[in-house]
Amino acid sequence: MQRRDLLAATGGLGLGMLGLASPSQSQTPEQVLRIGMTTSDVPTTGGIPDNGSEGGRFAGYTIYDALVNWDFTKTDDFADLTPGLATEWHIDPDNHLRWIFTIRQGVKFHDGSLLVPEDIVWNFDRHLNKDAPHYDKVQAGSYLTYTSAVKKYEVIGPDQVALYTAQPFSMLPYLLSRVFIVSPRQYAKIGNWQDFRAAPSGTGPFKVVRVVPRTSFELARNAEYWDRTRVPKLARMILSPVPDALSRVAALQSGQLDFIEYPAPDTIPTLKAAGFQVVTKPYPHIWAWHASNAEGAPFHDIRVRRALNYALDRDAMVALLAGTAIPARGPWPEGTKYFGTPTEHYRYDPAKARALLAEAGFGPANKLTIRVQVPTSGSGNMVPLPMAEFVQQNYAEFGVVVEYVVSDWNTVLSSMRQRADTMTNPRIDVINHGLPISDPTQLFLNFSGAAIPPNGSNWSMYVDPKVDDLLARAFANFEAGPRDALIAQAHAQIVDDAPWVFAVHDLNPRALGPRVRGFKQAQSWYQDFTGICVG
């Protein structure tokens, strides 16, 4: 099947599903930005967004701040951390289990109340204290990836809080960047987390004004935002889930949307020719097969894992994606400071792939059959079904049979929170999942033996004592140079072990209408919408 046929095969959702009016039906106010997300549903807006990292992008950093935020001002390099609701943080020099955060003064929640240090403790109770009356028993478990490293927390002064870890963990601020701070006063007024989502209160640059389940949510400018350089120029943003790539493009072309995530690759030349803006930029993100390394699984054998990495024609996949991705040789892109010097270099090598499969006992008389859970759409998954069909056809040339279990995105995320060895009905050997590897904590969460669910995202149950030792030593080290060298060694070992099939790093493509101005794309999964104008 040709590239255009693969991409067209999954298109065709009607525009009526968007629930948006076209300009011919209603006049769009000048400073309203209408965004088409790739999610299949509206992310939850109560401070623990679902729908993966795209939920964090649109229903996290727009509405809330964390103690530590992401710096979007430098667009020529990967984004890093910047002060958020904490003006500074440091490790206690006398106790490397104790972090001290100085809380920003004068910050107002959307409900008008002032942020105080006690609010930080209250928010951690929401996540971690099962005896707290406001413990979020429905959602807190989904954020243990980010919160479980914190073992104790307390107010230690009029403008300071202390967070404690079980062991020295120099990368804790990266995890805290996803712990969004909500207003205790607004929660007290509403009384439960379900209803809080409809009228939440954060400190972020936008306020929630309306949530229409399964259709859209609407944000309005927070004119009193504490960071005066990031008070939004927009009056409002309306964000709608549009999981089908071709439907997103059609809605953009018809004027129903102004800004879409991941346009269908084959439509990009047409969009550019018609005056639409298509922006791309490298960033730390990977589309991969998360393979079960559990005892008894096909991928428990390193020869199988390496074979399928050598069998994948990444250049052809990049062509399928019209150049909106680059080949992946490991979790991080080649050339980054953390890539290291692995001994395995995964290029398309059919002879080597066949030899490794034969060594593992697979061939024409004993075909390898793999069951893969694949999402229909969702956060960071690009055009998953055409890509999945490409992989299926690619591996068929090696006598490998790929059977797909097609699921919606939130079902896939639920699977990722389980252990691979528990997924037996139906049996799942691989979860196809795109995700940001934005900082070293993501390496820990996905590849450390200590991060097997529920303590992290290591669904694959990959365990290498060398990697665990290198990461433990790195995260106990508070000096950047030696720490980065250890992380690079760990990454190189992960590449050699091939716990995943590393496919491609996408280039974060999105398409904007001709009237959209001021968007400066960061080299980050997360983005800043405050500088955008429409008109």
Provide structural commentary.
This protein has 535 residues and is an alpha+beta fold. The protein has 17 helices and 21 strands. It has helices at residues 3-8, 52-59, 117-128, 144-147, 172-176, 184-190, 193-196, 245-254, 268-273, 302-311, 314-320, 350-359, 384-396, 409-416, 440-447, 465-475, 480-497, and strands at residues 32-37, 68-70, 81-83, 86-92, 95-103, 150-157, 160-165, 206-212, 216-221, 236-241, 259-261, 277-279, 285-291, 325-327, 368-375, 400-407, 430-436, 500-506, 510-512, 516-517, 533-534. The longest helix has 18 residues, at 480-497.
Please sum up the structure shown:
The chain has 17 helices and 21 strands. The chain has 535 residues and is an alpha+beta fold. A hairpin with a 2-residue loop joins strand 6 and strand 7 (160-165).
DSSP E strands, number: 21
Using the CA coordinates, give the radius of gyration. Answer: 23 Å
Largest sheet, if any?
7 strands, mixed
Structural class: alpha+beta
Oligomer: single chain
Instruction: Report mean pLDDT, rounded to a whole number.
Output: 93
Shape: globular
Whole-Å distance between the termini?
Answer: 42 Å
